[in-house]
């Protein structure tokens, strides 16, 4: 028995000696075997995106807390809820901002078509003087590839369509003026994006809006959580036309002459600072994804390491109401009081003040339809047009009783299969009741209206150093 014990002891000593020889594998050198994260303990400061303001976290009574002239308590059951901090656009998304999205999609499609038509190409000057300049970027023999790029090439490279290897050269300028087309092949590709001559009015060259499609991927978190699994099965691929429906100015109003807005509102420079309308709920979400991609691509282009940005999205219905109240308790309207005029008799929002009258001031001849953003007083958080101008899409599913069954912590009724989406804020064609902070409305998500727009939000991590509240 003693002999067996000695053998075991000898074996254990051997193990100890072998582990202590050379550099220890038990922990990083210098940590003395302790579990010490390599990341430094630094404070994370949330970077405020351009054109957004920060909304501090807090609690408030959601719903018609002061009055409900329609006497429908099931639509606005009073309830105290808590909302985390977030960034939100100070104005509704404008025509000019949405046109950046349109132009990006247009240019991406044009460059892809040119690259496909150019084949191997690469025999041009590199300044857009021939279609060959627009070929996919390829690695020269003397160009050093990273291991990841070598892996992509080993998987088939651009010939097999592996993402990451098919690189468009955005430094080569596009020529949209017909007099600057470099060659016939280029002209053939670019002209394929326009309406054919047989469909033009007055021989106007107009981009075929049906070809301006945006593709992106999002994860269906609700289904993944219900099935307790995450993976490719829950990735949803969307591809949709993103050009606004400009015909809404005619379709929304029978027996009304609104053709000038139908023809000019979205593209004319005079309307660049007006809120974009005619956008469906799905198109608004696509815009949010584009804005996220824009920031992500910029961060990846930096030499220094940069954090992946928080995603842009539509606000939940409760987030929207919380921001609209501007930090005031029981605020009937975003400016606080129960009145629609200030002490000088001027209306505080763009809405329909009287039966048959859509103009806020007959003497000054103010806005009959929408108004440019920032023309009316901002609320306590520095947000414009949280009442009137255009109503706004939210991310929330609409239900008469959603305030009753939703959680009290960051309430959300997100359901992508439900076609009814909450719309808040009232618009230029609505009466004063619809402008109240607690007033609710809805629309089908595939509907585009001349009185519905949107604004975006971005989360602020709970661990972040909260940005200072914007001073008025």
TrEMBL record:
<dbReference type="InterPro" id="IPR016187">
    <property type="entry name" value="CTDL_fold"/>
</dbReference>
<protein>
    <submittedName>
        <fullName>Gliding motility lipoprotein GldK</fullName>
    </submittedName>
</protein>
<keyword id="KW-0449">Lipoprotein</keyword>
<dbReference type="InterPro" id="IPR005532">
    <property type="entry name" value="SUMF_dom"/>
</dbReference>
<dbReference type="InterPro" id="IPR019866">
    <property type="entry name" value="Glid_motil-assoc_lipo_GldK"/>
</dbReference>
<dbReference type="GO" id="GO:0120147">
    <property type="term" value="F:formylglycine-generating oxidase activity"/>
</dbReference>
<dbReference type="InterPro" id="IPR042095">
    <property type="entry name" value="SUMF_sf"/>
</dbReference>
<dbReference type="Pfam" id="PF03781">
    <property type="entry name" value="FGE-sulfatase"/>
</dbReference>
<feature type="domain" description="Sulfatase-modifying factor enzyme-like">
    <location>
        <begin position="51"/>
        <end position="457"/>
    </location>
</feature>
<dbReference type="InterPro" id="IPR051043">
    <property type="entry name" value="Sulfatase_Mod_Factor_Kinase"/>
</dbReference>
């Amino acid at each position: 028995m003693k002999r067996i014990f000695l053998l075991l002891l000898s074996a254990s000593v051997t193990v100890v000696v072998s582990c202590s020889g050379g550099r220890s594998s038990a922990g990083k050198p210098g940590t003395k075997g302790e579990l010490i994260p390599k990341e430094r303990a630094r404070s994370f400061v949330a970077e405020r995106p351009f054109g957004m303001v920060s909304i501090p976290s807090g609690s408030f009574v959601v719903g018609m807390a002061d009055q409900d002239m329609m006497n429908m308590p099931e639509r606005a059951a009073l309830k105290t809820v808590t909302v985390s901090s977030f960034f939100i656009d100070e104005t509704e998304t404008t025509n000019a901002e949405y046109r950046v999205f349109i132009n990006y999609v247009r240019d991406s499609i044009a460059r892809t078509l040119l690259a496909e038509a150019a084949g191997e190409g690469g025999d041009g000057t590199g300044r857009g003087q021939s279609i060959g300049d627009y070929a996919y970027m390829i690695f020269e023999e003397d160009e050093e590839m990273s291991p990841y790029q070598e892996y992509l090439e080993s998987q088939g490279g651009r010939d097999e369509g592996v993402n990451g290897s098919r690189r468009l050269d955005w430094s080569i300028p596009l020529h949209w003026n017909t007099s600057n087309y470099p060659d016939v092949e280029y002209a053939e590709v670019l002209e394929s994006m326009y309406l054919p001559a047989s469909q033009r009015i007055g021989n106007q060259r107009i981009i075929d809006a049906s070809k301006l499609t945006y593709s992106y991927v999002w994860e269906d978190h609700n289904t993944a959580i219900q099935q307790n699994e995450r993976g490719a099965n829950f990735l949803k691929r969307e591809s949709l036309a993103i050009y606004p429906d400009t015909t809404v100015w005619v379709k929304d109003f029978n027996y009304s002459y609104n053709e000038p807005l139908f023809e000019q509102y979205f593209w004319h420079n005079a309307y660049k600072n007006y809120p974009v309308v005619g956008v469906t709920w799905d198109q608004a979400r696509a815009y949010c994804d584009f804005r996220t991609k824009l920031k992500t691509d910029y961060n990846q282009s930096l030499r220094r390491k940069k954090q992946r940005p928080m995603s842009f999205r539509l606000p939940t219905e409760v987030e929207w109401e919380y921001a609209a109240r501007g930090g005031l308790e029981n605020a009937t309207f975003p400016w606080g009081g129960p009145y629609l005029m200030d002490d000088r008799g001027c209306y505080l929002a763009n809405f329909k003040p009287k039966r048959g009258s859509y103009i806020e001031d007959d003497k000054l001849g103010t806005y009959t339809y929408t108004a440019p953003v920032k023309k009316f007083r901002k609320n306590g958080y520095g947000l414009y047009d949280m009442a009137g101008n255009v109503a706004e899409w939210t991310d929330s599913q609409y239900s008469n009783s959603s305030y009753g069954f939703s959680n009290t912590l960051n309430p959300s009724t997100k359901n992508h299969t439900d076609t009814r989406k909450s719309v808040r804020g009232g618009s230029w064609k609505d009466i004063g009741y619809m402008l109240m902070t607690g007033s609710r409305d809805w629309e089908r998500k595939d509907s585009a209206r001349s009185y519905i727009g949107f604004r975006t939000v971005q989360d602020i991590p709970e661990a972040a150093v909260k940005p200072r509240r914007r001073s008025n």
